[in-house]
Amino acid sequence: MKDILNKLDKAFENKVRLGIMSALMVNEQMDFISLKDLLGVTDGNLASHLKNLENREYIGYEKEFVDRKPNTTYRATELGKKAFKNHINAIEKLLSNR
Amino acid sequence: MDQEKYLQDIKEIREMMDRSGRFISLSGISGVVAGIIALVSAFIAYHYIYLDSDFYSFKVVYLSPETIQDIFLLALATLVLSIGSVIILTHQTTKKKGQKLLNKHAKLVLVNLAIPLITGGILCVIFIINGYIGVIAPLTLVFYGLALVNASKFTLDDIRSLGIAQIILGLIGLYFIGYGLILWAAGFGILHIIYGIRMRLKYGS
C-alpha cells in the first residue's frame, strides 16, 4: 500500500495541474486561452500552475505572435506524458486494492 | 480515506480529456428541427416531381426546366433553414455550458464535415448537368453520411452511427432508383428526429 502511495506524483495532486495534463494528453497542443476556458480558472492561477509543470519539465511551450498579440501554446513533453501515465496507473492500482 | 479523492480525480481526468478533445455541445433539439424541415420539404418536392397520373402503377417523374428551378430553390431553402436552426440552437447550448460556439473543436468538426459534403455537392451538380436526376437524392445521403462519419472523430460518438445509417440508406436508394425521395425523407427527416431525441435524452442538450 505504501509502495503505491509513493508512486503517486506530487505534481498531479492539484486539480488544475491534473486538468492541464489531461487536456494536453489528448491535444497535440493548446493555447493559454483555450486552457483557461476549459478549466475555468483565473489567468494568474493558470499561469502559476503552468510554471510549476514547466519547472518539472512535464510541459513545454512555444511563444509566437498572432496578429501582433503574443500567443503561447503548450504541449506535454515525453517526460510529462510518462509521469502522467504512471500517476494514473498508480491511482488505478490504489482503487483496485481496496 | 483518500480513495474518494482519487475516484474524483479519475472522473476529472476523463471529463477534461473528453471536453478538451471534442466538440460536445451539439444540440439534440436542432436535429429534431432539421428533421422536421426535411420532411416538410420532401413532402413539397413529392408533389412537385411526381405527376398524379399513374403510369402502369409507377408514378411518373416529370422534370421540366421550370420544375428543376423550383426544386433547386426548395433544396436551397431547406439547406439554409436546417443549417440556420442547427447553428442557433447549438449556440444556445454552448452558451448554457459557458463555451464558445466556434472553438477549435467546432472548427475541426465543420472542416471535416465540409470536405466530403462539398465533394458530394459538386458531384451532384455534375450529375444534374448530365441529366442523371434519379441518383441525386440517394447520392446526397451517401455523401452526407460520409461527412458525418468523418466529423464524428471530433464530436459525439453517436454521429458516427448516424452517418453509417445515412450511407446505408443512400446505397439502397442507388439500387432502387425510384425510391430516392422516400429514402431521402427517411434519412434526413426521420433519422435526424430519432437521433435528435436520443441525444437530447442522453446528454440533455
From TrEMBL, chain A:
Domain of life: Bacteria
A Pfam entry, by short name: HTH_34
InterPro entries named in the record: WH-like_DNA-bd_sf (IPR036388), WH_DNA-bd_dom (IPR027395), WH_DNA-bd_sf (IPR036390)
Gene3D superfamilies noted in UniProt: Winged helix-like DNA-binding domain superfamily/Winged helix DNA-binding domain
Membrane-spanning ranges: none
Domain Winged helix DNA-binding: residue ranges: 16-95
Protein name: Transcriptional regulator
Organism: Marivirga salinarum
Automatic annotation (TrEMBL), chain B:
Protein keywords: Membrane, Transmembrane, Transmembrane helix
Chain segments annotated as transmembrane: 23-51, 71-89, 109-129, 168-195
Source organism, top-level taxon: Bacteria
The name this protein goes by in its record: Uncharacterized protein
